[in-house]
Amino acid sequence: MNRFAALVLDKNPEFSASVREVGDDFLSDGDVTLDVEYSTLNYKDGLAVTNRSPVVRSWPMVAGIDGAGTVAASTSPKWKAGDRVVLNGFGVGETHKGCLAGRARLKSEWLVRLPDAFTAKQAMAIGTAGYTAMLCVLALERHGLMPGDGEVLVTGATGGVGSVAIALLAKLGHRVAAATGKASEEAYLTSLGAGSIIDRAELAAPGKPLQKERWSAVVDAVGSHTLANACAQTRYGGTVAACGLAQGMDFPATVAPFILRGVTLAGIDSVMAPLPLREQAWSRLARDLDPAKLEAITTEVPLAQAVEQAQRLMAGQVRGRIVVRTR
Fold it and tell me: What are phi and psi of 99, to 5 degrees?
């Protein structure tokens, strides 16, 4: 039986998070066994590993909603040993043991073939955060956003979603305004392609139901008053893609932007997104994400440091993406 390290979350009865050695018999059921090469820490992983929110629904749990690596064994005709794949979401790390481990057992229908453009490490530098950013961009495009339409606001700009969204939008020819509370990160955000930086405090407090039109579109990973103000400032016919809740789950807004300016609020779900949309997102990431920008937003750590890094993530001390080397 294979033995490998895994970040195990348990409640027995107190919560614990630790890296320990486990075997194949510890894994969940599935028809594909993956040798995980890299995983990552997303905001949801941070919530789970620090027990900030009831993300985990089954105990004990291996953390990690993302993984990339090589198929070790498969009873599914869809995949064979040696195939390179990427996994995002589908309840992995929540109800099904996840990928912050040397191995994972997964369901074949959850997997996407890793694009040739990316290594496993690069795929996890993107992770759910970057894949969600691409889903946001696709939603804005479906609602008619074109380069030259005006400034696109990205909130939570130094986070994983925000960093990748800025890089994608800039590469596609959009002017990007980055909202952040970290004035010291202006050079970083500018290097990703942001054309202007605004203080997140401008958006974080209660505001008027309808405000001066500023944004042609918005990618919001923050929620609460930030999302309400972003909607209130979006130009006629614009679209707001909402994908996160860093400030809160509440939405203290009115219908005014939607019925007086025709603003669209597009909800972005990365966890259960259908396979064709996932494949489209990864195909577009391979085409539209500059690998040099990806390198600039990534910090690599070993699995042994994952708990510490999750704590830093939740304390707002991390920028960009944390890639976890699992083997």
Answer: -110, 5
CATH superfamily of 128-267: NAD(P)-binding Rossmann-like Domain (3.40.50.720)
For 75, the token pair is: 């009873």
Residue 294 CA to residue 321 CA, distance in Å, equals 9
Measured between alpha carbons, how far is 140 from 138 in angstroms, rounded to an integer? 5
Q: Which residue has the tokens 């959009």?
A: 174
pLDDT tens-digit readout, 14-72: 999 999 999 999 999 999 999 999 999 999 999 999 999 899 999 999 999 999 999 99
Pairing of strands 61-62, 15-23: unpaired
The answer, as to whether pTM is greater than 0.90, is yes
Domain ranges of the chain: 3-114+297-325, 128-267
User: Which fold does the domain 3-114+297-325 belong to in CATH?
Assistant: Quinone Oxidoreductase; Chain A, domain 1 (3.90.180)
- Residues 282 and 86: beta-carbon distance below 8 Å: yes
**Is the separation of the CB atoms in 87 and 100 below 8 Å?**
no
